[in-house]
Design a protein that fits this description.
single chain; about 0% strand; 2 strands; two-stranded antiparallel ribbon; globular
């Protein structure tokens, strides 16, 4: 009985930490929802919605890289596939004046395509498009992960393979211009309409859609990290062989993390098409994938919220500097300096800096309590814990 009480007391700080984390996540999401209330500018709302979508993409990489140790340099692959799935559905809803006979997309008409390809036809259904935007990236991630993680490939080799897969799909989409729009991508899209509600890219409705999806994805990813599966994922990140010795199938957990990250990235890609109003091969480009890694490093790859805020902060700074007359020619140099400074002085990113400050403040509080003879929360100063061990 004593041992059980002691075990319960040990879990109290963990539960308190979890509730504090949930409260912080909730406060950030609430602040995001309040932006349209204080900002009456459609252009800026659209810009901020784009930043939020990229924040979702960075959060997806944090789930696989920060919590499972899988550095996926091809993260833009899932993002781009989700984007194209949504673009195909919206293209088929474009007003007839912009399409050829029988509703063929304009770029197919220009390339002498006579009838709609079979793989385009299901995208007349919006529910199918929403499903495909998640399922296609997940299936590809599971297939790639099965070959990679079953073979116990780790480290930089996983990064190279994922990057190679991204390049292959990117070249395939560019090469098949008659079916994908090639370098031009898929443009001139209709606006998304769900249950009679229209989501104009420059309306508050689209911003709230992005904010809602971000909140759901953020808390769903947090729930994964707090589950037993999430704890095993973090153990794999820290010491893969030790987890394998305990009898767990490491490949299964890695495939799950890889697929969950792909699902969130696919959702982000669909949202990006809605707010940008087009899909482009650049969404599957190497520069975007490398940028996501930088965003996670700046924000803190072992923090979902940190990675998301890192993406928002970096992309916001890039936008502000590139539009400024003062930094018009030097903004890339400034951003490079920021990245170097973060890598050198903040190896755990901005989230690590905040965590260090909080621990320092609470550490001073515990030290003050110890100096006055008051026990800190969760500490057993009477020796009960030792007795519990002896009883066990």
């Amino acid at each position: 009985m004593v041992a059980r009480i002691d075990s319960t007391s040990d879990r109290v700080p963990v539960l308190r930490r979890t509730w504090v984390q949930i409260s912080i996540y909730g406060a950030v999401c609430l602040a995001i929802f309040l932006v349209p209330v204080v900002l009456d500018n459609d252009f800026l709302l659209n810009k901020y919605a784009r930043y939020l979508v990229l924040g979702i993409l960075a959060m997806a990489l944090s789930l696989s890289w920060g919590y499972c140790g899988i550095l996926n340099l091809g993260q833009a692959l899932s993002f781009g596939l989700g984007s194209y799935c949504m673009a195909m559905a919206l293209k088929l809803r474009t007003v007839p004046v912009h399409t050829g006979e029988g509703g063929l997309p304009d770029f197919m008409v220009w390339n002498n395509v006579q009838e709609l390809p079979w793989f385009w036809a299901p995208f007349y259904s919006m529910p199918f498009a929403l499903f495909a935007g998640i399922a296609v990236p997940v299936l590809l991630a599971v297939l790639l992960g099965w070959f990679v993680f079953r073979a116990r490939i780790t480290g930089v080799y996983v990064a190279i393979i994922s990057l190679a897969a991204l390049v292959v799909v990117n070249l395939l989409i560019i090469d098949q211009q008659r079916y994908t729009g090639g370098f031009n991508g898929i443009t001139d899209l209709a606006q998304l309409e769900i249950l009679g509600m229209e989501f104009d890219a420059y309306s508050s409705a689209s911003y709230y859609l992005v904010a809602t999806v971000l909140t759901v994805c953020l808390f769903a990813a947090l729930a994964i990290t707090k589950s037993k599966t999430g704890l095993i994922m973090q153990a794999i990140r820290d010491h893969e062989d030790r987890v394998r010795y305990f009898g767990y199938d490491v490949a299964h957990f890695k495939i799950f993390a890889f697929a969950a990250s792909a699902a969130i990235a696919g959702i982000a890609g669909m949202l990006y098409t809605i707010v940008m109003e087009f899909a482009s091969p650049t969404f599957l480009g190497v520069p975007l994938s490398l940028s996501v890694v930088i965003w996670c490093a700046v924000g803190g790859r072992q923090s979902l919220l940190g990675a998301m805020l890192g993406a928002i902060l970096v992309t916001g700074m890039q936008g502000a500097l590139s539009e400024s007359e003062t930094f018009l020619d030097t903004w890339m140099l400034v951003m490079g300096g920021v990245f170097v400074a973060v890598v050198l002085f903040l190896p755990k990113g901005l989230a690590g800096l905040v965590e260090t400050i909080v621990e320092h403040l609470f550490g001073q509080g515990r030290a003050a309590r110890a100096a006055t003879g008051k026990p800190a929360a969760g500490k057993d100063v009477s020796g009960t814990g030792k007795k519990a061990e002896e009883a066990a």
